[in-house]
Task: structure prediction
Amino acid sequence: MTELRTQSTAGRSPRGVPGTVRRPAERHEATTLLELARAEVDPVLRAAIASLPGPMRRIARYHFGWEHADGTPASGGSGKAIRPALVLASASALGGPGARAASLRAAAAVELVHNFTLLHDDVMDRDTTRRHRPTAWTVFGDADAILAGDALQALALRLLAEDGHRAAPLAAARLADCVIELCAGQHADTAMERRAPQEVTLDETLAMAEAKTGALLGCACALGALYAGASDAEVRALDAFGRQAGLAFQLIDDVIGIWGDPGRTGKPAGADLAARKKSLPVVAALTSGSPAATELAALYAAPHAKGDLEHTREDLERITSAVERAGGRDWAQAQAADRMARAMQELARAVPDPEGAGGLLSLAEFVTRRTT
Amino acid sequence: MTELRTQSTAGRSPRGVPGTVRRPAERHEATTLLELARAEVDPVLRAAIASLPGPMRRIARYHFGWEHADGTPASGGSGKAIRPALVLASASALGGPGARAASLRAAAAVELVHNFTLLHDDVMDRDTTRRHRPTAWTVFGDADAILAGDALQALALRLLAEDGHRAAPLAAARLADCVIELCAGQHADTAMERRAPQEVTLDETLAMAEAKTGALLGCACALGALYAGASDAEVRALDAFGRQAGLAFQLIDDVIGIWGDPGRTGKPAGADLAARKKSLPVVAALTSGSPAATELAALYAAPHAKGDLEHTREDLERITSAVERAGGRDWAQAQAADRMARAMQELARAVPDPEGAGGLLSLAEFVTRRTT
Result:
């Protein structure tokens, strides 16, 4: 699963989907929605984690940023609660405050699933940093990180099984189905990274991004709709809204990963290129059939040279330029705009009243950094 | 999770709980119950696995022994269906044929959870053989084995979420809770294996075995009871029955792992000792305070020497003798008898009619190899 890279709305990169009409009020609204979601879901999450047996609890609390590795309290952020906020906003949009309040457990369950996948993905990808801290497997070992992830998945589905709401069984089935899609997405990602760049198609890269990133955002929206007693068509439309917004997010995240400001993203620009990641703009460039694509393929075939800083800088500049000249950046930005347009269509289908759809719109614009 | 080592009732080791009254008819009954459970649950399992995305499906089918690594059909056994048989037998004992038929999905869910833990445990323990075949991680890599395990857990809980039965939410919550206990048990096991032998207590070894092996057998029985509409007290008693029978099984399995016939167990006798495993008879011996315990501690402190067959044989003989002289074998057999007696008490509490309890009794005796 990809974590959102921005840490706050302040100082966000002005890059985004071209041609966006910016509404300053929305930024505040999304921030408020996220803060509210965090404040309301955290007690449910903390109570659920507190019910785990000692060692599993300790690893989970470390992962969430609530404790240091030695068990002392920490004040680190546990992420931005985008997914819980989407559950609550969907329930609110289609069912009002009552549905919103009823969907708190579902919001916590989605956040638990997200964090279970982060724990496991970090083990598989050998990622050493998460939310500016060493990943759980580097601190507790692979086995404990795998076990803590397993326990969080079980906890998520237990929360829904214990929820007396009539939507709970449908929500649980949908969340379990989403976990299976997330697994398939992570499998596709790791399998693609092992293949030669010229063997990877743009369609499969988009499908992978949808499974890995879009699926859980879509599921979050669908769960909120289920708790609001929405119709099948509304649930489907909100799922599609979340998926398309998730894809737009991933496209923009990949663009920022290449051209963005490292001070703002928390990740050095070019890290994806140095790792020869087959991100969406790169695959679009590689499959463009242009002379720059041939140049890029040759550059990507050579592993990144570490150590010589000057050489490293030149290598990354050459790759960045080739991706841009091959149209990777333009394609990604146009695709992101297209995905956001589709997301808006789906949102309008599920929630025709613009006032009611406001919260979901703000959150979608927040994740895709369309506001300044 | 520990797999049962016997492959069939025929040719089973006569070792078992001392003082057992053997009833020849039961062997047949247990075998029939297991065969019936396999035949009835397999279609549900296969349909569930068939719903997985391609790559996850392939790994799961390999793991279950239904396919070779290249995707061609295989006829390997997927285990003995002890846990599904316990679900069905419990439902039948307390609710008759209707409850038994209604609990099929729950039986499949328990089997999926069992197999998810096997996939993950094999990754963590670096075990290379499972059911006489290379483990999934050795064939598909760690990442795919972890992902397939994650997907099987989700599939198990989805089966229950989609089950319209009124017991399904309670069953799902209980199964999710059991997964958390299994994770804690596996954590305790891996943590104990890293510690010095003299630091491990018998109580924590028994607690670990209960969490790792007893919990899922207990959960299987509890789920069957829930589908039969049993009272809380009956559900608790059947859970305790399964747990105690699971502990008895583990004790006997550990005894056979040291003194058993390798041709019958599928695992060479002494493998646990060669790996310096802190199995129940070994910890009982180490904590006995006898001179043989001191001798055993010194032998266990030296890693097992590989290569020199003569030396290896002598090393294992010396350790085996020390465990026996320190009372590890007698203790384990007495404990197993005690646990089986407790299991029988719990069974009588939940199902007072001996006729109705017959199936569960046969299965408990089968797993602990009390019949010949």
Remarks:
- The CA atoms of residues 184 and 366 of chain A lie 27 Å apart.
- Strands of chain A lie at 129-130, 133-134.
